[in-house]
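R.M. (postdoc): so does anyone remember the format we settled on? I'll just put the structure tokens first.
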């Protein structure tokens, strides 16, 4: 393993430690609109809007993880952590919970690529993809959720002729720095919670169970349990290299 990769992996681990420390700075907010009812997102299951997976039934939640398939550590860790929490939920909770993975790298992550990538996890996760080059909906959607991300170009450590060969071969060697969290959205498109990845699978499962019970008890009320929106949702972290 190259020294550069070791350094970047170390920075990724450090970022996760920072996230854990920031968790204590959480602030409570009421649910806010995050997924406009008119917005349809292309996905590995066809076009989705806020209540597609719930079929319009109350008491459902979607849990969304942002990331990209070329991420070597943080994104797989996020999906694996959600998978472990999923395995601790009962059948009723699973039937009302819909995992989703939103790619922040649509140039490389086509829907077939997302399907292959997500099939590696024992989790019924739907891949979401919106082109960013000529479509502002990705930026608008991530802003509504509080997701920050930016493309990070590789260091110019290769000779120009090598870089040109890479480009001609289509080997894009850039990374995506992005927020790390699990975003919980109800069937009305409202953000209910932002869960930090510093939580254990047991803590995540308990929180998701509580949120499901809350929306089942009062699905149309804005006075459902206050959202615990962690400040870490606004902390960009590296996706690794």
């Amino acid at each position: 393993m190259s020294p550069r990769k070791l350094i970047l992996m170390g920075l990724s681990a450090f970022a996760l430690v920072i996230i854990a420390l920031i968790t204590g700075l959480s602030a409570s907010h009421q649910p806010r609109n995050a997924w406009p009812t008119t917005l349809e997102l292309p996905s590995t299951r066809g076009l989705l809007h806020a209540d597609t997976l719930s079929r319009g039934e109350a008491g459902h939640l979607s849990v969304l993880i942002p990331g990209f398939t070329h991420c070597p550590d943080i994104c797989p860790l996020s999906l694996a952590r959600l998978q472990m929490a999923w395995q601790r939920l009962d059948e009723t909770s699973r039937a009302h919970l819909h995992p989703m993975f939103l790619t922040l790298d649509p140039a490389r992550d086509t829907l077939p690529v997302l399907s292959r990538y997500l099939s590696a996890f024992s989790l019924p996760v739907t891949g979401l993809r919106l082109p960013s080059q000529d479509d502002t909906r990705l930026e608008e959607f991530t802003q509504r959720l509080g997701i920050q991300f930016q493309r990070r170009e590789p260091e110019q450590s290769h000779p120009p002729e090598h870089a040109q060969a890479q480009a001609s071969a289509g080997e894009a060697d850039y990374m995506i720095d992005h927020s790390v969290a699990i975003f919980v959205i109800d069937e009305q498109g409202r953000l209910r919670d932002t869960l930090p990845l510093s939580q254990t699978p047991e803590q995540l499962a308990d929180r998701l169970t509580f949120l499901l019970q809350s929306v089942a008890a009062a699905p149309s009320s804005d006075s459902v349990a206050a959202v615990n929106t962690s400040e870490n949702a606004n902390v960009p972290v590296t996706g690794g290299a």
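R.M.: ...and that's the designed sequence above, right after the tokens. Also worth knowing: The chain has seven helices and eleven strands. The helical segments are 3-22, 74-86, 91-95, 111-118, 137-145, 160-168, 201-217.
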